[in-house]
Amino acid sequence: MKNKITFKQIKIGIVILIVLSGYLSTFQYAYSNPKDLNMFIAKKTEKALTVGMSVAFIEDDQIVKRGNYGYADKEDGIHVDDKTIFQIGSISKTITATAIMQLYEQGIIDLDTDINAYLDIDIVNPKSPDVPITIRSLLNHTSGLKDNMEVLHGVYSYNDTERKVPLTLRDFQLAYLLPNGEFYDEDINFYKLEQGKKEYSNVAYALLGYLVEVVTETPFNEYCNASIFQPLSMDDTGWFLSEVDTNRLTYPYFKGKEKLPHYSSPTYPDGMLKTTVEDYSKFLTATMNKGMYEDVRILQESSVNAMLNSSDGLGLGWDTKVLEEFLINTKGVKIVGHAGGDPGVFCLTFYNPLNKKGVIMFSNTDTAFNLRMLNSIDIIKRLIVESGVYE
Q: What percent of the chain has pLDDT over 90?
């Protein structure tokens, strides 16, 4: 399995490319010919070596426009269509955060209490042992838990059968966060906490998923099925390969060339959700409507507001400066969303909380620090224009 891609690395790469090439962060390309959206995306995905992509525009609580491009499985000639299932990377964290906020609403947990009050194990940051790790700090990436990428790369599983390391979600916490654990390393697995400093952490979201398991006495995937997916009729959504129709699941393509096997990870609450554009649009619409989709409420309005209340970008599961990760000037408009990047995965969703217009873009090809990324940014700019999120 190829290395897990972080958006911090992507951002650094974009900056270098822009400096070197003199590329201007404007909407020139978004308005350039061809004017037809499908032709534009088809042209840009070809230049970006993107194998497959699905796009949807959300307005008035429904999908008002959508497009499918390329292949879910290029070798077998299977095209992306409305029923195609994508693995969506770190956009999955929006689901995990919602599960946590549901438990908060029920009074089962408190966001600012030491997580050890709820867990069946004691977790201490050896670099800041006197500072408790709270649920809020896990949600907004200030927990001090650091991604040891060598470990995270090594625990991927393939096709739910051939596992490099047969770990459960609980097993991973024991191995990674507890002294004497197989993957424990106090130098690499933890940051020294600095007040208010945010360090993006996949490990933190894996721990949040485990916390849900402990306090509900229910496997995390089953909790999400019962409390989020089923109420929203997200029938083609699941965390595990065994929960979705793999015949409709895209294969991931590394650098647009190498077809990878389907994969998952014991840290799955951080980025292994598998879903369709249509299914995820229901969840996104619920968030845009302060927790309500049609006649189903998954969160209270106050909880959604709390998740988006961030001045420095990373809220509670949502990124309030998501487009700025791609050096796009949002012109003072608050845009909320999340991006997802893994081997063979590049996905993005964003919306304007005021006009309730949003975009979903799923693809089965990762980005890279070269002209492929610049063409992907052109697509994002065009989606901004077409969606009207700045209106």
A: 77
pLDDT at residue 312, rounded to an integer: 73
- Considering just the CA atoms, what is the radius of gyration of the chain in Å? 20
Find the CATH number of the domain harbouring 301.
3.40.710.10
Residue located via tokens 């896990």 = 138
Integer angstrom CA distances of residue 154 from 148, 161, 174, 321, 365: 10, 15, 16, 31, 21
Instruction: Let me know if residue 336 belongs to a domain.
Output: yes
User: What's the pTM value of the predicted model, to 2 decimals?
Assistant: 0.91
Q: Which range among 31-35, 185-189, 212-216 shows the weakest confidence by mean pLDDT?
A: 31-35
> Does any domain span residue 258?
yes
Full domain range(s) for residue 242:
7-387
Helix (H) or strand (E) holding 58: strand 52-59
For residues 110 and 129, what is the distance between their CA atoms, to the nearest angstrom?
Answer: 21
Domain count, the chain: 1
Residue 353 lies in a domain: yes
- 347-378 confidence digits (pLDDT tens): 999 999 999 999 999 999 998 655 678 889 99
| Sign, Cα dihedral of 124, 128, 129, 133 | negative
Do 220 and 99 form a contact (C-beta atoms < 8 A)?
yes
Q: Which DSSP category does 309 fall into?
A: -
Q: What does the DSSP 8-state code read for residue 255?
A: T
Q: Is residue 190 part of a domain?
A: yes
As a whole number of angstroms, the distance between CA 115 and CA 211 comes to 8
Nearest C-alpha neighbor of 142 from the set 342, 313, 335? 313
